[in-house]
Design a protein that fits this description.
Blueprint lengths: L13 H14 L7 H12 L4 E7 L5 E9 L10 E3 L5 H6 L4 E3 L1 H6 L12 E6 L7 E6 L7 H14 L17 E5 L5 E3 L1 H6 L11 H5 L7 H8 L7 E9 L7 E10 L8 E8 L9 H13 L4 H16 L3 E8 L2 E8 L8 H5 L7 E3 L4 H9 L3 E4 L6 H4 L5 E9 L2 E10 L7 H38 L10 E8 L10 E8 L3 E9 L4 H19 L4 H14 L6 E9 L4 E7 L5 E3 L5 E3 L4 E2 L13 E4 L4 E6 L1 H4 L6 H13 L6 H9 L8 E8 L7 E7 L5 H15 L7 H17 L4 E8 L2 E8 L20 H8 L2 E7 L2 E9 L3
Parallel strand pairs: 22-25
Antiparallel strand pairs: 1-2, 1-6, 2-3, 4-5, 5-6, 7-8, 7-11, 9-10, 10-11, 12-13, 12-17, 13-14, 15-16, 16-17, 18-28, 19-20, 20-21, 21-22, 22-26, 23-24, 23-27, 27-28, 29-30, 30-31, 31-33, 32-33
Helix pairs in contact: 1-2, 1-5, 2-5, 9-10, 9-14, 10-14, 14-15, 15-16, 20-21, 21-22
């Protein structure tokens, strides 16, 4: 390791010298089974990396596979398990001997057809020069990326990785049956084969990492397990714990861990040593400590108030052989009961049934003074059989009643009532269990109430930012679906929109803002509004997306967005598609053939200020289904986005487009839901009645108004309209005159006839709309034109168009 401890330390930074020393110490122990992982951890310590991984050639020699990693999970960094050795990505380039340094904009520019990581990452790929070759891949979340010292430290790590570590072997032959020994500094674990049998794990498949066994535990029991295996949360002494592990078949198995944390001596790490035994054969009435432990595990995953109540009922009713349990929140002077067990109204007092309001009773505290006193004192209270209680409580527990106030800080969050029908003697052990359960439930109830309020706020915000309903379309049917992520705050940046445009055009929009947060959702609402405003102004699709891109850049946010915008001409069955780093549309043709549209793509919105967003033509025959989606539906940890798009296209091909609602539900039913998902489907049927259209460019000549009138008269006669044309001709005279007198530039007259509805529209280059005068004197020389148009037409108005406006008027005519 000539480069690990180099000569000429003068001129090197202190950090680089410390990295050399740490790597030198690791080089002194070449037989350490976790040597490679510990070397990669030095990239996290000295180079500021969030993730570091070593890729080496696989057995087939065609793929570079991740051999070891440290830091954040790779999926959070957008890193894959394997890359093609013949490709052009950073890992392949580094394997061929070239260093690669990329920033967030570089990564976004390379991700037009693939999903971009949700955070702003800097990436480094360095070659590892040994017989098998390979690559050191490092990712940083710091705004400045890797500075000069970071790069020097990464070079030292790459040189140290060049000497591969020996394979890891599980050692446990010297341990007693059921024994284990855990090194608290590295997480390396030595276990007896008996322990692996309890975990249903083959000894040949065990890699010596404690995380491997933790991954087999029931998720609800992980918090208590982590409190044992994490040294920072422990003190020297004995530990005892019961937990569950998943089995290949059947229910989880209960195991009991007994261990002791021991110091390793000067300069040596601490070890947790002990035994793991099968606890499934324990007697049914397990210890109160185990009951409290299981209740704590259940409450740790309870996210709603109803979940808290169910966990308390499951933990107390059967062990205490109680006949009924009620858990209620305290709101002002009323108890809002969230869980009753049994749930039948007949099992509860008459006064509760008289106050029955919704699904659960709403019992007033004033009708139960004994309960009110217990809540004021804040301590569990127990009354034996025959105690003189008010009817509202006596009927809950005629054989004995326990009232548990649920404390949450300096106030009461609610109460739990436990009642027995037959006389029941509540012993000291049961009192201890009730007290412990009340303290746990009070904290969990407060946390769940906050989560309920948060989720309600999130849902309300999401509903306000997305369209409430889709508009009725001429010659088409559209449906949309949105599903929030099931992980973390259920608030995402995916959105969809359907925008009706003039002349029977419709814009289909779908997009995705980076991240899952209130900021991402707010930015999503801003981008949806901006795209709709630019579209309604009459701009072509590429200009609409370009304006939205410049707007996002000017907002100076750290987030970017992807978008797919499709402008559909319902009369002609044609469309223009613009992509900004988003997935292309999927088209299902009437014969069942499905294709992923070959639409050119531009960069995501908000990355580059000056860039092109090319328009790609699409042809739609009647019966064509257009499907737009976000990456949450097509990407998974097991496959890349291209494979997911092909799978999505096959699913669309197998769908029956006659009913779009069931099709959308079926497509979303297969989503993994690790990310939020937006889906927009439109079936193009074609317009049954196509409008008649004609246009006339008005030249600025003295006879311009007369020419416009003659064009209008000839057009109406060709359409079979020969009567009642005086009013439309008068409106043409007034609108064209106003455009010629008050504006500059081109003026265009458009005529449209749909059934018996005639629409006249005069477009000019001025954005100023005509103002209807409130009053006109006899001496006024103008201002009567708009009043005349209003008087003779059925309706009139103005619309913004690209670079100007359009003034229109509608008439009812007979053909």
């Amino acid at each position: 390791m000539a480069n690990v401890v180099g000569e000429g330390a003068a001129g090197r930074s202190t950090r680089t010298l410390r990295a050399e020393g740490a790597l030198s110490a690791l080089a002194a122990d070449p037989r350490s089974p976790d040597r490679l992982r510990r070397i990669l951890e030095q990239a996290l310590v000295f180079a500021g990396a969030s993730f570091a991984g070593f890729y080496t050639l696989g057995e087939d020699g065609e793929l570079l596979c991740l051999a070891e990693a440290a830091g954040l999970p790779r999926t959070l960094c957008g890193v894959r398990d394997c890359y093609s050795a013949a490709g052009h990505g950073p890992v392949a380039e580094a394997h061929r001997g070239r260093e690669v340094w990329l920033g967030p904009k570089d990564l976004a520019a390379q991700s037009q057809s693939r999903r971009t990581p949700r955070r702003a990452f800097h990436l480094a790929a360095l070659p590892v020069r040994h017989d098998g070759g390979g690559c050191l891949l490092a990712v940083s979340e710091r705004p400045g990326g890797f500075d000069a010292d970071d790069r020097a430290c990464l070079a030292l790590v790459a040189d140290a990785v060049a000497f591969p570590a020996p394979p890891v072997t599980a050692e446990g032959a010297d341990l007693p049956p059921g024994g284990f020994s855990l090194a608290m500094d590295t997480g390396r674990l030595r276990v007896h084969d008996d322990v692996l049998d309890l975990f249903a794990l083959d000894p040949d498949d065990f890699d010596g990492r404690v995380e491997t066994l933790l991954g087999l535990a029931v998720p609800e029991d992980l918090p208590s397990l982590m409190s044992v295996v994490e040294a920072d949360h422990m003190t020297i002494g004995d530990r005892e714990l019961e937990f569950r592990v998943l089995q290949p078949a059947g229910p989880p198995r209960w195991l009991r861990l007994r261990g002791r944390l021991e110091h390793g001596g000067e300069g040596r790490p601490a070890h947790l040593v002990g035994t793991v035994a099968d606890a499934s054969s324990l007697r049914a009435d397990v210890t109160d400590v185990a009951r409290v432990q299981r209740l704590a595990a259940a409450l740790s995953t309870a996210v709603t108030v109803r979940d808290v109540g169910k966990a308390v009922v499951a933990a107390l009713r059967r062990p205490l052989r109680a006949d009924r349990i009620a858990l209620a929140e305290l709101e002002s002077d009323r108890l809002v009961v969230t869980v009753l067990d049994p749930p039948e109204p007949e099992a509860w007092p008459d006064v509760w049934r008289s106050e029955w309001r919704t699904e659960w009773p709403d019992a007033p505290v004033r009708t139960m003074p004994t309960l009110a006193a217990a809540l004021r004192e804040g301590r569990p209270a127990v009354w034996p059989a025959g105690s003189p209680l008010e009817p509202a409580l006596a009927e809950v527990g005629p054989g004995g009643l326990a009232v548990l106030p649920l404390p949450a800080g300096n106030r009461m969050a609610g109460a739990c009532l436990v009642g027995w029908d037959a006389p029941h003697d509540i012993g000291a052990d049961e009192r201890t269990l009730l007290t412990a359960a009340a303290n746990l439930a009070g904290q969990a109830l407060t946390r769940a109430r906050a989560l309920d309020a948060e989720h309600e706020l999130v849902g309300m915000l999401q509903r306000q930012l997305l369209p409430r309903r889709l508009p009725r379309l001429p010659g088409a049917v559209a449906v949309a679906r949105y599903l929030p992520s099931t992980a973390g705050l259920k608030l995402g940046g995916d959105w969809y929109d359907v925008i009706p445009l003039p002349d029977n055009h419709v814009a289909l929009v779908i997009g995705d803002v980076q991240g899952h947060s209130a900021g991402a959702a707010t930015l999503m609402g801003q981008m949806r509004t901006a795209l709709r405003a630019y579209a309604v102004e009459g701009h072509p699709p590429d200009v609409v997306v370009s304006h939205a891109n410049r707007l996002l850049v000017d907002m100076e946010t750290d987030l970017f967005a992807t978008c797919c915008y499709v402008d559909v001409d319902m009369e002609e069955g044609s469309a223009w598609c613009v992509r900004a780093g988003h997935l292309p549309p999927v088209l299902r043709h009437p014969d069942g053939r499905t294709e992923i549209a070959e639409a050119e793509g531009g960069p995501p919105l908000g990355v580059v200020r000056q860039c092109d967003f090319p328009m790609s033509p699409l042809r739609l025959q009647p019966g064509t289904l257009v499907a737009l989606t976000t990456d949450g539906l097509v990407e998974s940890p097991d496959s890349d986005i291209d494979t997911g798009m092909e799978r999505f296209a096959r699913q669309v091909a197998a769908a029956d487009p006659a009913e779009l609602g069931p099709v959308a539900d079926e497509l979303l039913g297969r989503a993994l839901r690790s990310d939020d998902v937006a889906l927009l489907l439109m079936r193009y049927d074609g317009m049954e009645t196509r409008p008649l259209r004609e246009s006339w460019t008005v030249w600025r000549v003295p006879q311009a108004v007369g020419h416009a009138r003659r064009f209008t008269r000839r057009t109406l006669r060709s359409w079979g309209v020969t009567e009642e044309i005086d009013a439309p001709l008068l409106a043409v005279s007034e609108l064209v005159t106003n455009a010629l007198v008050h504006t500059d530039g081109k003026v265009r007259l458009d005529l449209t006839l749909i059934g018996d509805r005639l629409r006249l529209a005069v477009a000019d280059a001025s954005p100023r709309s005509p103002v209807r005068p409130t009053s006109i004197g006899w001496e006024a020389t103008g201002g009567r034109g708009i009043l005349l148009v209003e008087a003779v037409s059925a309706a009139w108005g103005t619309l913004p168009v690209s670079g100007g406006k359009q003034v229109w008027a509608e008439f009812t005519v007979r053909r």
